[in-house]
Fold these 3 entries.
Entry 1:
Amino acid sequence: MATKGINRLTPYMFMAPAAIIMGIALLYPLGYMVYGSFRDWNPSQTIGESEFVGLKNYITLFYDPAFRESLSVTLTFAFAVVFAELLLGVGLALLLDRNIRGMSILRTLFILPMMIAPVVVGLMWRYMYHPTVGTFNRFLESIGLEGVDWLGQHALMSVIIADVWQWTPFIFILSLAALQSLPRSALEAARIDGATPWQQIIHIKLPLMMPVLIVTALLRLIDAFKVLEVILVMTEGGPGLSTEIVALRISRTATEFRELGTAAAMSNYLLILLLLLTLSMFAVTKLQEARAARLARQIQEED
Amino acid sequence: MPEIRLEKLIKRYGAVEVLHGIDLHMAENEFTVLVGPSGCGKSTTLRMIAGLEEVSDGEIYIDGQPVSHLEPKDRNLAMVFQDYALYPHMDVARNISFALRLQKRPKDEIETKVKEVADIVGLTDFLTRKPGALSGGQRQRVAMARALAKDSQTFLFDEPLSNLDAKLRGQMRAELAIMRQRVQKNMIYVTHDQIEAMTLADRIVVMHGGYIQQQGTPEELFKSPANKFVAGFLGSPPMNFLDAELLEEGGELFAKGSAFQVRIPEVKAKQLGRTDGKITLGIRPSDLNYDANAASQVALDLQVKVSEYVGAQSVLLCTCGDADVTVELKSETPIALGETLRFAVRPEGIHLFDRKSENAL
Ligand SMILES: Nc1ncnc2c1ncn2[C@@H]1O[C@H](COP(=O)(O)OP(=O)(O)O)[C@@H](O)[C@H]1O
Ligand SMILES: [Mg+2]
């Protein structure tokens, strides 16, 4: 009896260290943050000395135009990059899903940007966007065009371009993997049924890739909401508030404005947003599983 | 409907040539079966006709027109794949109507057509199901219905029944034979199963190692195989082969082996054009009849090793000298393992092959 009980507990014992560390490293600060978000808290105080203010931080934020602006910058940024990356990544995958000589090298080259550290990417693009000595403007001027004020007037677009450059490969490799696992013979059947290459994409390839694409897009969206380094290095959120994403605003609120409580509340808003996205991704996969299970059951009932 | 001709068709993958000049002529409305062991190039041949594989050399003519440069969709054919190749995200009705929808046919015409072919293959109750919710046999029918709906002139089948269990395969084979009579089309059917080939074909093309070994009606191929390979491939249980030498004795010709001396019928001996040399004697199990009183020059003496009971018939695995011989026997015949029995050889059942070239003599 006793050994049986121990046996049943064994897996939990092995999991315990990891669970404890996760509890300390993740749940404790999280709880700390939630707790702090209900307080008027200044970095010179300990959290015990701070004053409880209820939902005040959340309500102020809700009506704070600067926070709203930064939320809208984040949303614009996230949806714009994911949309552009999907378009480019899937498009490239459709183009490069063939056996031509040198294709494997080309594919490897395509995924390089993803492997570069974000800070380096930021520095690299900041240099390339430089108004006078930057690669882009020098090129534009050399062909007789006027330079563009990349990180000034068009700052948001410029950081979007940099992010698209870095993360399109992610969508590209996942789409390519999805494409290459499509049933070959179904595509051949479509060719015989009279589908042009374009119709094969619309009617067969894209619908069959859709489950992978949805999950990929959600993953990227979650990531795009958390982006920080690249923008920090390139623009520091400026000019004005034009590229101040929520993550940047949080760090400024905490360090410059010295309002830890507000910063914590802001983090919680972001957390809720990410949680919703994660849940929807979870729901999507569950839904797919449920559908597969239902089909399997249907077959079994007939046999 | 059309007449299809393959001329010196060659297929290479890189430096490896897998088809070495296939010449084939398929008449209108003919049911042609390409049969041969796995890897002999049947699918490759079929896929070249379909336009799914490039032709390395030679040409394919449909009604006299060269087509090897045409896309599959411009060749007016339908194909049933071994793994069915259904579109997983479309329900049965949309699978069946895919080609018609691409052609932008009117809605009611499509609907009528879907109902019609679904009725032919018995899928009427499953039109709203996705392929994932169908059994193997039903998927098979969807593949068939999809091909039928297209109304194309030529039907290609690549081992359509090989993923089904034995019982279902037999049933589908019978249904195919019936459908084949209703539908006046050119059909080219690939299989490695000689029973399918024998039961369905107007004409069988036996392939081996990238070459056509022989073509003709099932009966022609069964009765007079052109070489040892065809003889051994068609028929079940397969033909027995015994090493022998030709021997003339008293004006008669014999095939003499280590443990037998069988007389070669006069008609056959006349055609032979030679009276000595190493040969292989081929006799089908069905041409060996248990007969204890037969004369030794028209019979084989076989020692029974194993008896396989398969119902009314038993299959006996025997030895004749050092060669293995299979025979069939009514199950009620009392025999003991290790016993030596005499089997009479039907004179028409004697096949002779050159030992070296393996061609029929
Ligand atoms: N894509 C390919 N690349 C290289 N060799 C191939 C390819 N497809 C088929 N082959 C070779 O061609 C030969 C014939 O194949 P196939 O036509 O599929 O045979 P089967 O008669 O079993 O249908 C085989 O030896 C196979 O290995
Ligand atoms: Mg094959």
Entry 2:
Amino acid sequence: MSLIAGVDIGNSTTEVALADQTGKNIAFLSSSSHATTGTKGTVDNVPGIRAALEEALRKAGRSLEELDMIRLNEAAPVIGDTAMETITETIITDSAMIGHNPSTPAGVGYAVGYTLHLENFSKRKPEQKYILVAGKEYSYEKVAEILNALSGQDKSVTGLILQADEAVLVWNRLQQKIPIIDEVKRIDKIPEGKMAAIEVAMPGQVIRQLSNPYGIATLLGLDSEETRLVTPIAKSLIGKKSAVVIRTGSGYIGENILPAGDLYIDTEELTKADGSLSGYEIRETEKRRIAVSVDAGAVQIMETVRNAGNIADVSGQDGTNAGTMFHRMKTNMSRLTQEEISSVHITDLLAVDTLAPVLISGALAGETCMEKAVGIAAMVRTKQLPMQRIADKLAEELHTSVKVAGIEAAMALIGAFTTPGTRLPLAIVDMGGGSTDAAMIDERQEVRYVHKAGAGEMVTMLIRTELGLHDRSEAEMIKRYPLAKVESLFHMRLEDGSMRFLPEAIDPRYYGCVVMLLPDQIVRLEEDIPMERIMDVRREAKKKVFIENVLRALQNIAPEGDMKKIPNVVLVGGSAEDFEIPEMLTEVLSKYRIVCGRGNIRATEGPRNAVATGLVLSGLENQKDDAGEKT
Amino acid sequence: MMLAKKPEIVILEDRADQGILREICAGIEEEGLFYRIEKTEVVMDPGMLAHKAAEESILGAGIGIVLSHAVLTFDKLPAEHPLFQLEEKDLMKGRSRARALGKNAARLVRRQPFSMEEF
């Protein structure tokens, strides 16, 4: 009888499976996991391994001295990175706009007039129409008093812009009602004596005139050319509850298409491999370079990637955004892998179309516009990680034999096969942080595996940019945990529509907010974004990355490239524990008649511990003969 | 059937500082809600007043003010744990916070996030 531990060092966690082996029988005793210490594949991992081992041994009531053998994984030598590039940009110069959602504007409708600051009120000309602008030094009573002092026939003030949050207070005191916009912080930036239009939406609705190019043209009397130029303003005001558009001159307003540049995909295809004639092996390869414009969008880029075949490297056109983006990613990865930048070759990429809120240059209140962007995840192959060094160090510390055993994909397959209800041929999908990995084993024990760029990190990046979050960790939480809206001091509405009641009154900080439900606490979302929108963005991001990648990966490993020849797919790894990704994949793959679901390693472990379990099982001699026999 | 009471936030006050009271009312008004002010002669601390006010309000939101000390609460909360308290030595500062207290009373009814900057 011998005590064996399988140890899987992952990017974020180190997992252990502990088992007793007697002849060909293996009895699993316990499992454990611990945060990986140091960068994966370095001797810094040893403390984490030790902690995980000790925990597993303690659970089984055994000691380190009893351990006969440790089997370590040969980690997959791939590393991924993500980047985002916007390909359009809205610039407004010599013109100004304010579009925001103050919680309580007042009055309904639109008004046109020349801007006039309240301190210059006495200088107004009687025949002109004015939009009055009042700083917060004027109280609501003062503003109302000034306006009410005008005679009933004097309709020269058509609208009001306030700095303070007092629109309703002023409006309630006015004898002649006009639309009022408040909470405009940078009131000093509003130029004087310029033609302006303001609009306040009906309650529960959004503005209609200023979000329509022809509406602006009507109000400000624009010709067709000016109307064309004002379109970006209308576009960025869509969905607002109130807005101001000011004509400041014959300036340039436009939407710039940034030179996003081309992507170059270098491929290398083996055209001839013949060693029969001369004794020398003749290998001929054909190298090609395919260019695709980033502007063409993700669908076109992915089509090109799919048809490219064996990708040797990807780069971007020098002097363009694409060039900078790829250079940045390669620099990053060369730092991580400690390899020369010239030897960093991107072997796969995933492109996703997205929208990013970008600050409009020329806007008065920091308004943003949703600009088109392309998100890219890239993957490079690295040198084999020096696992043997970790093995030596462990052996020395623990006085036991340590073996680096088998490639990770094969180990994960063996482990995943312990999930009840699986049969050969079997495929697994491991959705990690940087890459989506898939492997397949058929009846003849042949293993095929593939790594695709883009996984959890990419999802986080998409959520962060589309929602315009400042904090990456907030995006990470949105990805991982379900949402709820705190509707009263005593209950919240969960994202599926059900209600959860709280044992005692919730902290007022959470009242009325969208929160994320972590296992042991709730976290408030700092930004004011409706729960439905966050859910949509989160689900779309997961679909864009994982469904695309799982399909790409399975197509690659399927027998004769036919996905219908894969009867079952087991999802393993961290993302398999996600609360919605496995269901999304089950749904999509059912179209290919594939049974797909979250793994349940050894019928007890859920999607975790597949590699560690596989490492223990692969220790059996004649593993091949017994692969069909479950423990 | 007629409603016995109007949908108002109830304010019970005892010798309230007029500046504080005015600002609380402005806060409620700006957020588009109605309020009713009642003077009380009963000697009570503002927390108890607020609780009593909340129970009288069909919206469940009540404010109690004694001198310059104001309290906002919700009828379902225990009297000893009100939502927000305002007790400021500096009267000018107290008045600016009073606006936020009034807004929060309205937001409690409107189920919108509170303005926490002043609290």
Entry 3:
Amino acid sequence: MGKLLVEEKAIVVPGDFLAEGMDYLPAGGAFRENDKVISSQVGVVEINGRLVKVIPLAGAYVPNRDDIVIGRVTDVSYSNWFVDIGYALDAVMSLKDGTTEFIERGAELSEYYGIGDFVVARVANVTKSKMIDISMKGPGLRKLIGGKIIQICAVKVPRVIGKQGSMVGMIKDATGCQIIVGQNGRIWVSGKNPEDELLATRAIALIEEKAHISGLTEVVKQFLDSNKGAQ
Amino acid sequence: MAYTRTDRALNELRPMEAKVGVIKNARGSAMFKIGKTIAYAAVYGPREMHPKFMQNVERGTLRCNYNMMAFSGSGNRVRPGPSRRSREIGLVTQNALAPVIDLTEYPKTVVDVFIELLQTDAGTRCAGICAASLALADAGFKMKDLVCAVSCGVVGDTPVVDLDYSEESYEGGAVDIPIAVIPRTGEITLLQLDGVLSKEQLQKAVTLAKHGIDKIYEVQKAALRAKFTGGK
């Protein structure tokens, strides 16, 4: 009957055969052709029961509803803000989604968010033709003041966050920095002093570089311990 | 006129080399070298398509740009730089790659592929397609398969694969047929030919090319894997 043609955690490229027979079902990053399941992306194989999935190792950010993202305001109009969230097209934040405050008719919107400001926002809606609405209504959504922004590859965000936020929690504890990770691969780091921020930045760079290996938590832990002592 | 090769067999490709991730600024990039022909490809985007009337609301657009570098030494017939010829090759490259790539997640956008030939010794559009398909995979786009391309043809009266410049400009006459294939399905996404040859010769040449494709596919896959496992 059906049989797997690759091992779990193997690195595959587009066109690689993953499994044979109807017993296995293609999930994200894979597709079926006749009785074969084939990879459509560069990635790592994950097998979950009958599901065969390829977790991508590269790729552009594609917004999904309810993603928390870090965006940069690119333009302000009479009733909207336009925000670059790392997708090809800018997202729109309408007046009513921008703030819970009352905004008077004819108010200057750039007093709330001006061009170049960074905000943490939630993707409220994405249409089929990728018109993206974002909202600032929700816990923790705000304008970012101070700190620094790091850009990493969006597909590596789950590794930076870790299981239930374990990885980012560890970096926060070790460096004392505030960290916000956007699903679009932008990460805001703010610490009491530049050294802490630098250490957090380097830890994140390490995770990005080694995102495909297992036992990453240990590696990062060692890195943080050895560098904290050096400071 | 009978033609014989001295340096390799008639069904043998020139030595190949591929490397992925060579241009750090790009979302994806690759180098593909076959004999003395060296192609680099870099992928940028998806980014918003301008002018807006060219946007496709259903899916993203693939746009390829082919260029020979000024110092590439392309012989006396073809001069490097933007020209009618390079526009055409950009277009056929685009058409050769479009069937495998899925851009439905990126409507209204464009994905730019830039192909630069550092050194040329015939087979440039094929090397360019090989490099571009690697670069697109490296960029993380969803693809049905890679695309492999090689030239085949008839030199004198002899069907051969992977012609170099001396063969392309062979005195006794030569026909050059660049072919791009989706290796898994065997679908042909590019086949160009000008010249005169018999049906049997064409069939023989294409068969030779299809065997060559398998070797190119292996080189491409190994190069892609090497990039992502190399960090260990």
